[in-house]
Design a protein that fits this description.
This protein is an alpha/beta fold. It has ten helices and ten strands. It is globular. The structure holds adenosine-5'-triphosphate and magnesium ion. Adenosine-5'-triphosphate binds next to helix 2 and strand 9.
Length: about 250
C-alpha cells in the first residue's frame, strides 16, 4: 500500500524503542486484559509506556483501565494521548465517544492509519498494541504499517482456540516476524495441549495463567487488578519474556 500517511506513521513511531502487539487468532482469550496489564506492569517498573487499543469494533482497554473521561485529546501537531496510571493511552473511544458505529473493512484500515498517523507518542520504551481477534484486515494492517512490531500470542487451553491461533502463528512465521512468546490463559486443568503444541512447533512457551474466579470485580480498577492472582501469574510470564530479551 502506497500512502503518504505510512511515512508519517514511521516518523510518529520513530522514538519508540519497542512495539509489542498482543494478538491471537481467537476472540475472548484475554488479549485486552493482558495488554493493559502488561502496560501497568511496565509503567510501575518506571518505563515510559503507551497502550494502543486497535480493536476498532470492540474496544475494551478503557473498560479494563476504568477510563470514563472520553474528552477529545489535546491537539498539538497531531494529538497527545491521555495519560492514565502513567500510561499514554489511545483508542477509538475518544472519537466515537464509545457509541457504536457501523464500519466496513476499508473504514477500519483508514481508522487504523489515522490513529497511527495522528498520535504523538513521543519517546517511549514500550508501545503495547491490543489487537482485535482473528486474522483479518487489522492484523495485516499492523504487519504492513508497523515494521518493527514484535508479537505476543495468547491462547486458551482449548483445541478450538489453538486451531485459530495456529493459523495466526503460521502467518507470522511465514512473514518471519518476531514471535516473543505464546501465553496460555484461563487454564483450568492440567492438560498440556498448548505446551505440547509449542514444543512440537518450536515456539517459545512463556507460561500459563490460571482462570481467576475473583477477577471480574477488579476489571476497571487497576489498583485492585495489580493485586490479583492473575497479575501475580502474569508477572512470571513477563519475567520469562524479558529474560529472553537478552538471548533474542
Ligand atoms: N485468567 C483469567 N481469569 C479470569 N478471567 C479472565 C482471565 N483472562 C481474561 N479474563 C476475562 O475474560 C474476558 C475476556 O478477556 P479480554 O477482553 O481480555 O479478551 P480478548 O481476547 O481481548 O477479547 P476480544 O477478542 O473480544 O478482544 C474478560 O472479561 C476478562 O476479564
Ligand atoms: Mg480485546
Amino acid at each position: 500500500m502506497m500512502d503518504v500517511r505510512t511515512s508519517v506513521i514511521n516518523k510518529r513511531l520513530k522514538k519508540i524503542k519497542r512495539i509489542i502487539s498482543v494478538a491471537s487468532g481467537k476472540g475472548g482469550v484475554g488479549k485486552s486484559l493482558i495488554s493493559a496489564s502488561f502496560a501497568l506492569i511496565l509503567s510501575k517498573k518506571g518505563y515510559k509506556v503507551g497502550l494502543l487499543d486497535l480493536d476498532i469494533y470492540g474496544p475494551s482497554s478503557h473498560i479494563i483501565l476504568g477510563i470514563n473521561d472520553f474528552s477529545f485529546p489535546k491537539e498539538e501537531k497531531g494529538i497527545l494521548p491521555h495519560e492514565v496510571y502513567g500510561i499514554k493511552f489511545m483508542s477509538i473511544v475518544y472519537f466515537s465517544q464509545d457509541k457504536p458505529a457501523p464500519l466496513r473493512g476499508t473504514d477500519i484500515t483508514n481508522i487504523i492509519i489515522e490513529l497511527l498517523s495522528i498520535t504523538q507518542w513521543g519517546e517511549l520504551d514500550y508501545l503495547i498494541i491490543d489487537m482485535p481477534p482473528g486474522i483479518g484486515d487489522e492484523i495485516l494492517d499492523v504487519i504492513h504499517l508497523i515494521k518493527k512490531s514484535e508479537f505476543i500470542v495468547v491462547t486458551t487451553p482449548s483445541k478450538v482456540s489453538l486451531g485459530a491461533v495456529d493459523k495466526l502463528l503460521n502467518i507470522l512465521n511465514e512473514l518471519k516476524l518476531p514471535i516473543r512468546g505464546i501465553i496460555e490463559n484461563m487454564k483450568i486443568d492440567d492438560l498440556s495441549l498448548i505446551q505440547d503444541y509449542t514444543k512440537e512447533k518450536d515456539f517459545n512457551f512463556v507460561g500459563s495463567i490460571l482462570f481467576d474466579r475473583n477477577l471480574e470485580n477488579k476489571i476497571g480498577f487497576p489498583d485492585e487488578l495489580m493485586k490479583s492472582n492473575f497479575m501475580k501469574e502474569l508477572k512470571n510470564v513477563y519475567k520469562k519474556i524479558m529474560r529472553k530479551e537478552f538471548t533474542w
